[in-house]
Structures are given as C-alpha cells and as structure tokens.
Amino acid sequence: MTKYVYDFSEGNKDMKDLLGGKGANLAEMTIMGLPVPHGFTLTTQACLGYLGRGDWPEGLIDEAEEHLVRLEHTMGKTLGDPTDPLLVSIRSGAKFSMPGMMDTVLNLGLNEDSLKGLALQTGDDIRFANDTYRRFIQMFGKIVMNVPAEAFEHALDAAKAREGPNAQDTDLDADDLRRLIDEFLSIYEQHTGSPFPTDPRAQMRLATEAVFRSWNGKRAVDYRRQNKIADDLGTAVNVVAMVFGNRGDDSGTGVAFTRDPATGERVPYGDYLPNAQGEDVVAGIRNTLPLAELQRIDPVSYGELLQVMHTLEMHYRDMCDIEFTIEKGKLWILQTRIGKRTAFGEWVMAFDMLEEGLIADDEALLRVDANRLEELFKRVISSSATARAIARGLNASPGAATGKAVFSADEAEAWAHRGERVILVRRETTPDDYHGMIASQGILTSAGGTNSHAAVVARGEGIPAVCGADAIKIDLAGKSFSANGTRVREGDVITIDGFSGKVYVGRLPLEESVLEKARSGDETAREEMIWKAFERIMRRADEVRRLRVRANADTPEQAANARERGAEGIGLCRTEHMFLGEERVEAVRQMIFADTPAEEQEAYDKLLPLQREDFVGIFRAMSGLPVTVRLLDPPLHEFLPNQVELAVEVAVAEARGKSGGLDEKRALLRKVNELHETNPMLGLRGVRLGIVKPGLYAMQVQAIIDAACRVKAEGGDPQVEIMIPLVATKEELRQMREELEPVARRELDHERQWLDHLEWGTMIELPRAAVTAGEIAEVADFFSFGTNDLTQTAFGFSRDDIGKFVAMYEERKLVPANPFVTVDRPGVGRLMRIATEEGRAANPNLHLGICGEHGGDPASVVFCHEVGLDYVSCSPFRVETARLAAGQAAVGSLESASK
Amino acid sequence: MTKYVYDFSEGNKDMKDLLGGKGANLAEMTIMGLPVPHGFTLTTQACLGYLGRGDWPEGLIDEAEEHLVRLEHTMGKTLGDPTDPLLVSIRSGAKFSMPGMMDTVLNLGLNEDSLKGLALQTGDDIRFANDTYRRFIQMFGKIVMNVPAEAFEHALDAAKAREGPNAQDTDLDADDLRRLIDEFLSIYEQHTGSPFPTDPRAQMRLATEAVFRSWNGKRAVDYRRQNKIADDLGTAVNVVAMVFGNRGDDSGTGVAFTRDPATGERVPYGDYLPNAQGEDVVAGIRNTLPLAELQRIDPVSYGELLQVMHTLEMHYRDMCDIEFTIEKGKLWILQTRIGKRTAFGEWVMAFDMLEEGLIADDEALLRVDANRLEELFKRVISSSATARAIARGLNASPGAATGKAVFSADEAEAWAHRGERVILVRRETTPDDYHGMIASQGILTSAGGTNSHAAVVARGEGIPAVCGADAIKIDLAGKSFSANGTRVREGDVITIDGFSGKVYVGRLPLEESVLEKARSGDETAREEMIWKAFERIMRRADEVRRLRVRANADTPEQAANARERGAEGIGLCRTEHMFLGEERVEAVRQMIFADTPAEEQEAYDKLLPLQREDFVGIFRAMSGLPVTVRLLDPPLHEFLPNQVELAVEVAVAEARGKSGGLDEKRALLRKVNELHETNPMLGLRGVRLGIVKPGLYAMQVQAIIDAACRVKAEGGDPQVEIMIPLVATKEELRQMREELEPVARRELDHERQWLDHLEWGTMIELPRAAVTAGEIAEVADFFSFGTNDLTQTAFGFSRDDIGKFVAMYEERKLVPANPFVTVDRPGVGRLMRIATEEGRAANPNLHLGICGEHGGDPASVVFCHEVGLDYVSCSPFRVETARLAAGQAAVGSLESASK
Known about the structure:
The structure is a homodimer of 899-residue chains.
Chain A: E1 5-7, H1 16-32, E2 39-42, H2 44-53, H3 60-75, E3 78-79, E4 85-86, E5 88-94, E6 104-108, H4 112-121, H5 126-144, H6 149-163, H7 174-192, H8 200-214, H9 218-227, E7 235-241, E8 252-257, E9 269-274, H10 278-283, E10 289-290, H11 293-297, H12 299-316, E11 320-327, E12 330-338, H13 343-356, H14 361-367, E13 380-381, E14 391-392, E15 394-397, E16 400-406, H15 409-417, E17 422-426, H16 434-437, E18 442-445, H17 453-461, E19 465-467, E20 472-475, E21 480-483, E22 486-489, E23 493-497, E24 502-505, E25 510-511, H18 514-519, H19 525-544, E26 548-552, H20 556-564, E27 570-573, H21 582-593, H22 597-621, E28 626-630, H23 643-655, H24 662-675, H25 687-692, H26 694-713, E29 719-724, H27 730-751, E30 757-764, H28 767-771, H29 773-776, E31 782-785, H30 787-795, H31 806-811, H32 825-842, E32 847-850, H33 858-867, E33 871-874, H34 879-891, H35 894-898
Parallel strand pairs in A: 3-4, 16-17, 17-18, 18-19, 26-27, 26-33, 27-28, 28-29, 29-30, 30-31, 31-32, 32-33
Antiparallel strand pairs in A: 1-2, 2-7, 5-6, 5-7, 8-9, 8-11, 9-10, 11-12, 13-25, 14-24, 15-19, 16-23, 20-21, 21-22, 23-24
C-alpha cells in the first residue's frame, strides 16, 4: 500500500517530489538535530489521490490519524484537550515554491474547550488564548472557507475604534477579544452557512482538503503555466506542532538570510518582529526590525540563530532563507530553503563560496543564471541617489533609464528623431507601438505583467522597462499621468528602474553597469568583486564548454566588439546593408532595373569595389577566426520604395496634374508592382535570387575573395566561409557551388593567393532542407541552422504578423513557449536533430552551427549542446550569455542552476 | 570478366536493362523463330563503360570483333568484301525509347571495294549499289559526324535539278549517283577535315561511339529530365545484317500496328512504302501507302506479316508496333515494341484483350494511364468536320475549343466578361496572364513546349491548349496573327485541337466527350465501346482499391457532381464562399469591424441562418457519406478591398477635395491597413482566427449541427466531420474542441437529435504539425493532409509568388518535379510518413486522408496508398482519375502501366 504520510524524522531534503520543498527541508533539519517543532507531512501523492477521486484516497485518513496520535504522544498533548491542548499549523508545500496556493493556517485545534486549556497552559494568559483563537477563526475562515477578509477586518477595526481613535490590536483586552471571537464566529456562519467546526480533527480535514484543492486554483495554475511547472506534481501538507511568537516580548518571529541576497555579501540579513505570529510579518501591520536588532533584544537566541544559519549554509552549501520563531526565549526553526538573490548577488556568492572552498568550480558555474547575466551589463541608478519613488510596478526588463515622458509611439519616435531621450508611457503596448518603443530609453506601463507585450519587446530589445505600475493613472488626452498625487506632463523628465520596478520623478544619476565600470578600471570594491567573480566563473565556462561561440556581426565595429566579448568567429555576416546607403542606391536600382545582362553587370561592377572594402574591414577585425558570410538573402523589393506609398504618390500627382518626375516615378511603380510579392517571406529571395540573377552572387563571391586576398597579403589570416541562404534542395546548393567555386578560384589565381580556410555551406532554415539534410550534406562543408526562418516555416508563423495573436498564444499556452525566443524542441528542435544526425552521417566532416536569435538564449544553447552542434552564433551583446550557457550545458543541467 | 556483347540468340525480351528495348525484342523474336536478320548487341554496360573512361572498356573491342566474325561466318559474307560484302545497320536502343538520341545508320560496310561486291551480288545492279552507297555516306556523315544535313540535300537537289524541274531521286541513274557519291565524299571531307573512312571496321567503331556519346547529348538529357528517366542507364548498340527494301518493286519497307492505335479497334494498321529504305518513310519524301495495299502488291508477304503480327500480339499480350522490310519478296522483321496509343485506344484495347482472354482483369487495369483519363472527358472536334489546319503545334492540354482570337490577358478577361467565348493567343504566357487564361476557352501559343507556363496552367485548369505552334507569327500591335499565309484578326473565330495540336480558322463543330455522350445515352457504337471499357475497368479499380476517394466540394451542385462521379464523401468542404455574396458582405464587415462582442455576435446572428441553408444543401446531396467541413481558413482581409487600390482611391479623393463617402472609405482603409499582413500565408488565419474570434467558429459549428439535424429530421443521414485548419500545436486543437464541442452538444440537445457520425479533426498542413502529429493525434479523430500548404511551408515557396522562378527551377531540375503537382517524396512525403506513423501509433482509431490538389494526381495517389492513408480527396473532375490510380496502386506498380 502506498505510504501517504511521513513523520519529519522519516524524510530528507532529497524527497521534494514526495514531501514538497517545505516538508523535505523540515525533515532534513529534524535529522540534523536543529530545533524544529515536531510534525509530519501528507505527501504530494496524497494530494494527487485526493484530486483524482475527489475524496481522500483509501487509507490516508487512517494513516494521518496514526501520525497525529503519535505526534500527540510525542508532545504529551492532545488535540482539543481542555487542559493541555495540542495546537498545530497546517502548511502547504509543493516541490517548487508557488504563489497563489493556499499557504498556512496557524493555531489549529482551538475550540471553546481547548481555548481554556491553552489559557491554563500559559499561566492563565486568557488574553493570549483569546487572541490566538481570534486569529485562528479569522485565518481558517479566510483561507480555508473563502470568507471575505474584509468581513473580519471590519469587525476588528470596529473593536479597535471602540477603544479609541488610534488603538492598536494590542490595546484590545481579553474581554474585547472574547467579544470579537463571538463576532467572528457569527461572521463565519453567516458566510459559510455552517457553524464554525469545533472538532479539531474536522478542522484539520477541512484545512488539508483546502490545501489540496488550492493546487488547482486559478492563480496556481496560471503561475505554473507562466513558470513551466508541470500540473501533475501536486502539493504536500505539513502538520506542525505550534510554537508561539506572540506570547510576549520574549517571543517573536522573523526571516533570516545567511548572506545578503541583494549584494551577495557574507553577512547575515533579515527581519524580526517581536511578539508576533508569522502572518503579522506578511500582513505588514507593524514595521519589522532589522535582524541585527535581535542581538540586543535576545542575545542568546541571536547567537543560537547565527549558529543555525552557519550549520545550514555548510550543510546546504548555499545561501539559505530561514523562517524562525522565538517562544519565550526558545528558538524554533520553522522553514528553510535555498534563498533567492539578485543577479549581482548570485555571482558574488558563487565566487565567494568557491573561494571559501564550500563549492567546486563546476558548482559555482551552475550557481549563476545565464538568463540574468545581461543584468550585469545594464546601467543602474547611482547609489548616491536619494529620490523617493512615486510608484512601483513589476521589474519587467532590467536596467535604469531616464528621459522625457511621452505618451504615444509616434511622439516617442518623433522626439527621439530630434535627439531627445524619452520614456514611453502607455497603459499597455501593442505591436503598432513597436517603432516608438525601440526609439525610447525606457518603457513604463500602468497595466500588464512581466509577459505583456511591452515586457517581452523590452527584454528582447534590451530596453529597461517597468510594467503594471497601477498607481499610474494616464490622461491620454491631457498628455500627462498622475501617481500618488504627483502629476507628470509630456516632456517632464522621469527615471525608471527596471531592476526594482520603481518610478521616480526627475533625472536620477545613472551609473554604467558594474561590469562595464570594472572592465574600464573605474571600479569600487563591490564592482571589483563582481568583476573577479565574472572573470573566474566565465573562465571555467570557457574551459569546460564544448560549443564554440560566434557572433552575428555585419560590420567591422560589431565584429571587434564581439571579439572583445569572447566571440570565436562570426557565424553570420549578413550582407544586406552592403546594398544600402546613398552611394550604392543608384547601382542597386540599376541592378534591379537592368534590361540586359550588360547593364546588370555594369551595376555589379560599381558595387564590387565598395563591397570589397566592407569585407576587408571585417576580415581584418576577425583575422585568425572564421567568418561566415551569407550571400544576399532578402527579396529585391526591399531595396525599393513602399508600394502603397508610391502608388498613392503617383496617383495624387496625376490627380493634381503635376508631371514633374512623374514618368520616372511611374516606371519605378511599375517595377515595384512587378516585384511585389504576396508572401515575400516565401518568395524570390535567398538562393532563388542567386539562381535567377547569377551575376549577383558571383559579384559577392568576387568581393569576398578579393578582400580575403588583400587581408592575407597584409599578413592577416582570413578564414572564409561562404553561406548560401534558403536552400530547399540539394540541387540548389550543388548548382550554386558549381557556378561560384570557379569564380573564387579565378580570383585566387588572379591575386596569386590561396586561402587556408575557404568553405561552402548553407543555412538550414526550411523544413524540407532539414528532412533532406542527408542529401544536402553531400555538397556542403557546413550547415548553419537559421532557426528564425525555420521557426517561421515550421509553425507557419510570420514574425511580422503574429503580433495580433502571439500574446494570446503565450497566455493560453497554445505554444510551449515563445518559439522565437527558445527553440521549440518537439517541432523545430526535432527538425534540427534530424538534420544534424543525417547530415553528419552523410558527411562526417560537416560542421554545424546555429545563427538564429536562439543562439543567445540559454535554454536553446543547452539544446544545441545536446544535439551536438559545433557552435552557436548570437548577437554580440549575448556572447557572454552564450559562453556561460555553453559551459553550464557541458557541466550539467542548467535547470539546477536556475533554481 | 563482364560480357559486353550478346548475339540475338543469347537474349530475350526481359533483358531490356542490358540490351535496351530494341535489342531485347530482336533477341526475343529471334528465339521465337521469326524472320529477323542476324546480328548482335553491345550492351548498355558497354556504353556506360565507354562514357565512364572516354574510351572502349577493356575487352569490348575484342568481344565485338568476335561477334562480328561470327556474324560474317553465319551470313557467309565478309565486311568490305569486294565480291560478296556483308553490310550492317547500326541501331541504338536504350531501355526506354528516347527521341534525341542517335538512331540508325544503314548500309554500313560500304567502300569502293564492297560497292563493287554489292553490285555483283545484286545481279550487277550498279544503280542500286550506288544509291545504297550514297545513302550510307549521307547518313553516316549526318548522324555520326554531324555534317549539316543541308549540305547533302543541296547536292542531291542540284543533281535532281540537272535531270529536269520535277525529277525524283528515282530519276537519277547509276552515273548520276556515282557523281553524287563523289560530291558527298568531298562534302564529308570538307566538313569533317578527314576523308571518308574506308575501313568498314573503322566505320563501325565510329558509328558505335557516336551512339554511345549521343546518350549524353543535350536533347537526350533534356528528354530524360522531362520524362524522369535515370541518367545512368546508358544505351545499347545493335549491329544487324542489312536487308534491302530498295531493291525494286518487289521490295519495300513499312510500319505495322497489330491494332489501330488511334481507335483501339482490332484491325491491322500501318504504312508501306515500296522500293525504299526505312529512312525514306521517316523523311516523308514519298507518300506511304496504307498497309492494306500490301495485300494487293504482295499477298504472300502480307499474309506472312499478318501471321507474324498475330504471333507477336499473342506473345506480348499487347498491341505491337512493328518495323519490317521486304527484300525481293522476302519478309524481314526489323523491330517490335509495345505500340503507343491514344487515351481512347488504350481503353478499348485493354477492354477487348480482357474480353478476348488475352489479359486478366488486373492487367487490363494497369494498361490504362490514369494521367490521361481526363482526355476521355474532353470535347473533341466532330468527325464530320473537314477543315484544313493552318498550323500545328504541340498537343499541350487535351480537348477542343473554339472562340474569338484575342491577344492579351486583359482583353480575354474583358471579352469573356461580356459573354464572348475567346481563345487567348500569345507568344508565350507568364503568371501575369493567369486571369486572362482562366477566362478563355482555349490557349494557343507560338513558342514554348509542353511544360511551358501556358501548358502547365492549361492542364491544371483543364483548358485545351496548343503550344509552340511556331508557324504562327503574332503582330501584337496589329492585334492579328498570320500562319502559312492566312491572317487572323482579333475577334476572328478559330478552333484549336488540344489532342492533335492543330489550329483551324473558323468555328468547327465540337462534340461532347465520348464518355459524356455515352453517359447521356447519346452514343454511337464506338462511344458505346469506350463506355463499356470504362465501366468494366473502373469497376475493377473500385473492387481492388484500398483507398477511398472523396471530393473537394463546396456547394450542393459540386457535391452532387462528385457523387455521380463516384466520390465516397467530401474530404474538403471549404466555407470561405459562405462569407461572400451581396447579402452577406454587410454582416461580414460588421463582424470584422465590431468594437464590442455584442456587435460581433449580431453579425454572427445574421450569418447563421444563411450558412445553415448552405450546409443543408450539402448534407442532403451527400446523405450517407462523410462530409469534412473546414472551418474558416483565410485571413479576414481577404473579405475587404485591396489595400493599394483603396489607399489610392482615398488619396485621390482627398487631392481632388471630394468628400462624399470619404469618411467611410477612410475608416475602411484604416481597418484594411490594420489587418494588412506582410505574409498573409503565415498570418492570422486558420485556427488562429478561431482562437482570436471565438464566436466565429462557434457560429459555423452551430450552423453545421443545425443543418445536420434538419437533414436527419427529413430522414437523411448526415455524416459530419468538423475540421480545424492550420493547427501547429496539440493545444490549439485541444482548446478549440473544448470550446466547440459544447456548442455542438447544445445544438443537438436543443434539436433533440443525435448524429451517428460526428468527428473532430485537423488538417496537417504545417511541418510542425507533421513532426508533432503523435501529440496532436491524442485529441483528433482524423487528420487530413493539406499538401498545398504543407508544400508551401516545407519548401518556403509561396504559390502566389513562385511564378518568377519556378520555370527555371523545373528546367534546371532544382526541384525533383513540380512539388505542387506531385507530392515531393523526400521532403513533404517524409513529413506525411512521419505524421501518419506517429499519429496512428498514438491513436489507432485515427483516420487519415489528403485534401491538397495532389489528391487527384496519379503518382501522388500511389504515394498515399503506400503511406497507408484511408482516402484521397480531389476536385470533382478528378474523381475517376483518383479511383483508377488507387486501383492501380493496389494492384501493382503504376509505372509499368504508364509506359
């Protein structure tokens, strides 16, 4: 028979699946001999069993009763006993900590009989007993039975009001509280239709069922979807003998961290609230004291607590977050877990613990979160700033930003265009705001969560953002907003902090990111510490990773930046920009408009020397490292004016009878119409262009090889990889190579040079290419997965157009995750796996990489490692992230590191 | 060691791979004891060996010499002998008959010495000998050495001219011919730079090498690409002892078919040319006589030939095509093969042979070509018509058509719009002509082959077409064309015959297709025969096929038509048209423009009763058979005006200061702009619409279920399958079903009905859906492969846009075949296989079909059979084709049937 209930002495910290995080850690601490109250845990299996059949699974009631009797025996007290009653708390605890689930009911076991017993046991402290009973009814009613919280609070407020205008709840005496108890009991009956349960076992059954059911509550389900936690884990229920922090000034309750979770410093950190129970801290009724105050109040307990903290940190080998209660000078530990920390904190702690010998190199590597590494590169509000926030929202995208408030995307773009720094303030954003968002220093919204459109775009673009700051009331017509009494008008300067979610009026001083400052030698002690941590842990990542990391870079500047950040080559050098710019537009139009091959060739002859210079700069910057150049990819109409605008311009000129330049415009419009495509994404682009306009790719190859020869002649070491985009069939690549390789050879002969490294390959960015990769590999030296387009074609999602439904898709979990951020393993990932395996089987020398934006996403980097790619290529500012993620992938599961 | 040479007595008809078609059949006839001249065959392996090393493979020369000596021994004559020389013909023969390859060199072995011997052996017939020598030099020069044919022909014409104005070559005497020989020899030397080879063995070597090399000639290669014949087969070379049809009036040569290849009738058919060699028949220098004339000229040989024909037909169990020569009253058979025949002929022959007991049911089934079945349904020119063609082109798309000539697509559309029947006449067509092509009765081009744009579109649309009629000279400016002296102006009526490629002036009488006439009871004996054949063979196909055949039909009329043609259900009922039409456009706009859910619901309430009526008609027509209804698929902007046109209209109105209705147009333009998509193919459509506009699909489901209940109440048997399009993830389908199934249940309860057959499924038309089909199948009752979209997304080809490069892609073989016509097996086919296997594994009750246009393509039907689908669905006019192909797939390889 399934064992559904475990005494704390029967479990350990590795049993989180069964006992939940809280239960497993309570068990662990029990075994360690720490002062944990006695208790037992109903397992997650019990929860799933209950949810599955809608009733307690067979045997569970008996088993729970057995443990309860044992607990009574251990404690020498009995539930409901009128002389010496046992009281317990009921605490939920899933494997992962989860807001939205029912949390805790304290003081369970009280009724009119045991109330007397409690008073008796506390030296006839009737006030304490009544206060405890009042709290229990309130908490049970609210949490277990969904009685509206206000009902109880109004009654409490009324009771206090009877005492005087500024009365606290501590001003209520035993009689006041007795009256309140009676009021609460009738509130309870009124809202639930039943009298308050007097049988402690019935109380426990109801509370336990409520915990079980809360697993499927809407907020819990939403949270799991958001955080990709499986729905079939269930929650455990802990039944813990009560200890009381509300028994006077020698009692209290608090939270402690073994190190500072914000800075990572090795100092104890926390809060303490004397004469209180845990829910008082949460409710924020009274202000807590800094933990250090406890040393003054109760030095013995404080010393004992420090000892416990040390023991726990050594045992868990990580920073721990501890809940404790002191009952009449006796310390009790009620919970511990690995503490959450800031991105800065995690680097400092990982490095310190490594130095302290607490953890090994690889563990330190796994202790930092690659997803948050970018935060270290973001600007922060100077620590010297003293302003008070006018509002606080969600920290939706890290970094601090300051600028003038504007209220529409068009204004943002217009103001930015004339050199102003702006913060775009909106209720929420839509895809139509995109142009204004990317023109802004920061984004502030009054609605929407951390996965709202504004948040997603901001993070994607690296723009600081605060979202859902609901204190902000926007007056769109008046171009202003107010927040807690402060009014901000268009053009007024504000500052937002994407780390804390805070919003300030005025221009607060910003500082470069700690890492940038450290790198430029301009560091304080703290920054030096983060820099050391960064260097050491990144070195480890570089030592262990199997994946190489390249960057997507199109210019010498980007290439140099990427190299400085540790890029080991360019995985994608796009050549589109080489067809743009004033001096080139004429030649490009000539190329598009050419009626004869000779005219077309003339255009290429003009472009050739310009593009050669472009490549020379890139090969110089990347000397000694491979550069993958992608031949022209986008459809030609991207180099011509917008169809609708031009058609309107021509028609209006005609209507007005203006003929100046009209013929030329008409000719242009004819060409634009001719080149217009219904679905340009699936049209005449990529290798198809190369086939239809053979001179085009030949010119590019000539420019590439010329440039490489030049750099080589200077003493450089160009390593050239020529990439043909959008290949669907082997024949496309074979025929293009057949055409282009002689061009390259001719140039090499002409320059009397040879290149050590000249390879030809293709992007795998179409599903057909993926499933026929075995054939294609026969004529390719390398593959580079173009996961942007592969995701577009596999899902049939146009990135340009999904704005209208993607938010709903993410929210309703219609896609496993945003497939443009993280590689969709079952679909796109499977295509990649097929292509990798069959490509390698057909051509063992094939080398493989990825150059879609996924190359900079940690989860996708792990996938690339698993699939066995040779490298990832990402935008320059993601190079460190990719290096770190690649190292973590090599060492072990990234998942354990991100918890 | 490889055996490279086979005597005719060593082979048989099943050795076509090695001996080629001609050699294998010569060997077969030799074994059968038919009067075949002696000879031997150099194998296809010899050819490949030669092409591989650029020289004769080791041992081949010796082996050929050995066989040659044996032939000389058998014949008692020696090559080049001055008294009794052996002459031979060299005949190429690949596995498949292939135009463009070198064909035949006759009379090989002649030089000045053997010329004398030939004269001696023929009773001093010097004229015959000289004529034979002159023919040899001419043929050898032209075919083996590429001397321009005109050079010889001019000399021959000059010689004839010297004899008089109307002289025939038979008017040249021995001396004339001797002079001509000398002229030919010098023409040869002049063009080749070498004297004519006098060594017969050198002649033979050169001729053999020329045959080998012609395998890789451009025309042969093109032909193979076009006809999907492998490049690595090679051709065999046959060396055959000469017999002479040019030895006087008791000699001659001819071609005979064992049955009439045009009508299929069981009567001998063919041509005979007295006193001639084979090339005279081919060259058409003199008019041939009908074969029956031979009975009068040489009754003995005729009788013998009939006997041979009977023997061959019984032996090959099929209609044979025979080349024969009579030399001085002695019949020789030079070649036989299975004869080509018309689409009509093949049905009649298959049926007759089945009735005669010559072949079994399944063989008869495989004898007809599913690709050509449509021809039986096409209109033909009445047999009573007597007009003379003014030009002849390629029979690019079957059927006859008559109409007024127009010279541009716009005119075609405009004329058709006002009720005129037109034939579109173009040099060639481009994608921009599409709208005019589909408005035309027929298409006539002066350039382009059977795979030109015009031909492909015409066949796809079922429009008769004659292409590449190069006698037609178009004067675009003058809106006319001339052909062989006849001028046709715009509006003049012409008639084209897509069966024969002929073009006529005037309106020729057309007749319904033989099958349509037979079906309507209005048949002649011939039509009755085809009808019988059709019924019997189709019955067999229906008996044996495992694949069910459904039709894609959107209206009751289409449904009824499909059912009459044997469709077993509707595999795709599109619902787009239910949102079109004047009475609906208002409601549809309201649906799109709605600001509130209430407004939107109002629109649905208007559409509901109209769409219910649409479905009632369809369910009535298909009572008892399944109907798969696809919920709305296209993006909403398809129901609004064109963006460019509307923007121009608004801008022009503004420029002109016209304000009437402008506000409304502006509002419309705003909405059009808002809904505009960069890549609508990959945008907000299919299930995404259903998710974003939940009321839309709910309304459709309500209309479907209401209609089904109505039909059921009438006593009908509606079988409903509701299909959600464009699903990429399991969640999309799961959530849509979760939303829509309650709607269906509610309607059923409301109508107090239940349905025997109500299923929910999806199209598999995205690569991600295919590779995650195992997941999707968990929530689907059926899959239908939407291979149009699957091909678009797998290849990244937009069907709307590939016009600019697809012709080049087909020509350069960059795609295996047009993937929109025949399922691309390695890519799209593999995705289908994955989805089928994994879908069935996850849900054994899943049923699967295909509803892309591939469902009516015979090769794709075979693939669907192999993959194990349950049904194919195609346009109504392809239902018989699909039934036939499905039957053939079940019985065996379709390939053998289509040769």
